[in-house]
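Pasting as-is:
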Amino acid sequence: MLLLFLGDFLPLNVLSQENADYTVFYTFQYVKDTIADSYSVPHQYILFGSQDTSFFYNYTQYQFDSIGRDFEERVGPAKDNLQLFEKVVLSQRFELLSELRVLKDFYNQHVFIVFPELGQSKFMQEPINLRWTLVSGIENVRGMACQRAETSYGGREYVAWFTDSIPIADGPYVFSGLPGLILKVEDKENWFRFEISQIIIKKQKRLRMPGFINQHVNHLMTRDEYVKQIREKKTNPKYPPGVLNITPEMKLRMQDNYKKRFDLLLEREIP
C-alpha cells in the first residue's frame, strides 16, 4: 500500500478552500437494467468551483458531511462524544445509491476520483487532458442553446453539451476543458447521464466543506486497482464497520441493491 500525505502534492488552497466562485447543481442517472433500459432516479450532485479547483459530489453527502464537521467544531471529536454524535449526526445518515466524489486541481492539472467508502482515504489520480472534438449540432438544455462536443475517458465514449454564454470551463464529474460550462454529458452506450438543474454564478461561502480526501492517511490507487476494487464492492458489498445485528435478510437486500448499482461501473480498465 502506498501511503501519501496530500499536503505533499496538493496546493494548500485545494485543502482549505471555503468559498466558491460558482455553484452548479446536476442530476446524475445511471442504468439499473441494461436489458429493460430502466434507470435510477435522478441523484442530486453539486459542483463547487473556483479558478484553481472544483469539487463534485453527492449533495446529500455534502449536507451530511457539513453537519458532521459542524458537530466536531462545536462539540469536539466524534470519538469523544459517540452517543451525542450518533443521535445528532448518524441518525440522519442513510444509504446513498450514488457516491461519486471528484476533485479537480486546475493549478496542477490533475483530477482525483475518490473511492466510495467511509473515510475518503483511497483515490485515483488522472491528468486533466481530455481531448474534445467539437461536432456540429445544437441542442436546447434547460432553455440554453448548447454546442455538441465528444471525448473519450475511462474506457468510454462521451457526448457533452456546453454553452459559451457561461464562460466557465468546468462540468460534472471529471469533465472540463470546453469553452463554456458543460450542461449535459452522456456516454454513447446510454448508461450514464449528467444534466444541469441549477447554477449560481457568484462567490458564496459553502456550508461546511469537509476534508474531501483524508489528509492524514490516504492511498493513491492505480486505475486497475480502483476498477478491481470497485467491481468487488458491487459484487460483494459489505456493511461498514460498526454496524451491528446484520441479518441474512439485510445482506440479501444489500446484494440485490448493489446488483443495480451500475454507477460503480463508471470507470473501466484502459487497454
